[in-house]
Amino acid sequence: MATLSIPNPVPSAIEDAEKLRKAFQGWGTDEKAMIAVLAHRDAAQRKQIKIAYEEQYKEKLLKRIESEISGHFERAVYRWIFDPVERQAIMANIAIKNKVVDFPVIIEIACINSSNELLAVKQVYQLLYKHSMEEDVASHATGDFRKLLFALVGTYRYDGEEINTELAKTEAKILNDAITKGEYNSDEIIRILSTRSKAQLQATFNCYKDAHNLSITKALSTKTPNDFVIALRSAIRCRTTPTKYFEKVLRNILQKSGMDEDALTRVIVMHAEKDLKEIKELFQTRANMTLEQAVAKKTSGDYENFLLALIGN
Fewer CB atoms inside 10 Å of the end CB: C or N, the chain? Predict the structure, then answer.
């Protein structure tokens, strides 16, 4: 479930556009007023606000926001403004065009979406950038990462619940053979992970655990970890247990030294309208503090207030 808190009744898009305009005028920006509007409207409502603002004031809302605020707060608001599909297309492009491809972003987008949802993201990506996502992954990723990421974004997977038990047993053995030999970049591992349905993968991983008394992710973590093995484990968790995956991402960000604001923003912005409530509840169980407390401890100012609003504080 979402954590987004929307007022009832909801003001009209024209009223919200007026509130934003007032927040931008005068000496300095009224960030509190901005947050009160933008952090409490869903994607459809934000789209109507953007249309109303631009029709009424003859300027691009995003351009105005970029000129009014800065830093992590600006990046969080900018990403939030877009609808979920367009946001993912933009974030995928940024991740791909990085000096080194930001593989967690691509893995998350490729693995948490259904086949139809991923197809929608790729269609918007192509409209925005005049290249396919697959083309850009192939151009910018290298080596084993290119094989894995290209396979994950390029496959239209079956989303149903039917499974083939014998196939699960066979492919569990294939996975074990490759892992035992340390062949983590095996074409067979990539094929199974990228083409099988979530239900079929879960059946395969259950067979693996039954046969070896070890989960597939633990089997991949028993050797000295490297980035590619970490990517495989991330893909497995995203495809089979996404709530656990994102809870752990948040815990790693918020409970360790240092701070990855981009990753924190990504998880909260991408999930506030979707399933952040479940992620938040699991975080509290495992971290012994609420997500709100952890975010407040590691962030500050308008950035903190905006994230807490999305979390549902």
Answer: N
